[in-house]
Design goal:
317 residues, alpha/beta, TIM Barrel, ten-stranded parallel beta sheet, two-stranded antiparallel sheet, 12 helices, 16% strand, Luciferase-like_dom, Luciferase-like_sf
Length: 317
Amino acid sequence: MRLDVQPWGATMAELVDAARAAEDAGAGVVWAPELHRSAPVTAAALASGTSKVGVGTGVALAFARSAMLTALTAADLGELSGGRFRLGLGTGVARLNQDWHGVAFERPVARMRDTVAIVRAVLAGGDPITHDGVRSINVRGWRRPCPPVRIPIYLAAVGPAMTRLAAEVADGWLGHELLTRPVVKRRPGFDVVASACCSIDPDAATARRRAANVVGFYASVRSYAAMFQAAGFGAVTSAANAALRAGQAADSLGEFVPDEMVDVYTIAGTPGQCAARIATYEEAADAIKLSPPSYGLAADEVRLAQKRLLELVGSHR
C-alpha cells in the first residue's frame, strides 16, 4: 500500500520543503488541501519543488470555480508537473459554498457529475464544447493551443450517493480526514485513497492529545453531527457546539474529545501503534493519505509531529 502525505508548512517555502522531505522518504503523492491556501497554487509550488513524487489537490473545491477554469488549471498543473498531477475535487458543505464563496450548492451530486464531464470535455479539446445539466457549458470557436491531455480525477466522497458517483465517473476516491474506511471496492485502474490525521509520539497519550483538536473541529460542524451521534458521541458534538457558540476557537475544542473518540477518527499513538493501524488498510485501500495534527497547535509542535510522520513513511519502504 502506498503512503501519501498532506504536508504542512507555516510558509509556502516550508510547505515545499516538507513535500521534498516526503518525496525523499518515499511518499507516493503529496496532496494540497484547500482551506487556508489555494489548492491549485499550492500544488503548483509542490510540483515545482519536487521531481518524482505525485502531486494532487486534496481537495480543490469543485463548485467555487467554473468547471472550465478547473479544467484549464488542471491542464497547466499537468504540464508544470511533467505528468505527475492528479485533480482531487470535493463539494465542501453547503455553508462553505454559499456563505464563503457565494455559489450554489443545490443538487451537489448532479453538479459534481456535470463538473467532471465538463472538465474532461475541455481537457479533450475540440470545438464546440457543450454540456447541458445543473452545470452547463457552451463554447464555440475556441481551441486550446496545446495537445489534448487526460488528468486523473479523484472525488472526495463520504455519503453513499457521492461514493457511487466516484466509482462511476472518477479515476479515484479520496477519503475524509476523519479516517473514513473505504466503502468503494478496489479494482484495476481505480485508486482508492483513505485519509487520516496521523499523530505519532513515543508517548501515546501525547499523540492522542495532539490529534484531539482535529476531531473537536469536526464535532462542531453540524454536517457531521449525525455521524458522530450514530457512533455514540452525540454528547461531544453538543459540548463542542456550545463552546463554539460561546466564542471558543473552532480549532481548540479537543478538550471535549475523549481518547476513545480520537482512536476512532484518527491514527494516533506510538510509532509501532500507528504502523499497525495503517497496516489494517492494506486490503481496503491502494493508499492512505497521512497529515500531521495541526489544529490549535503551536508551529514547533506541528513540525515535530510532521517529522515523526515522515520518519514513519520512510520506514515503510
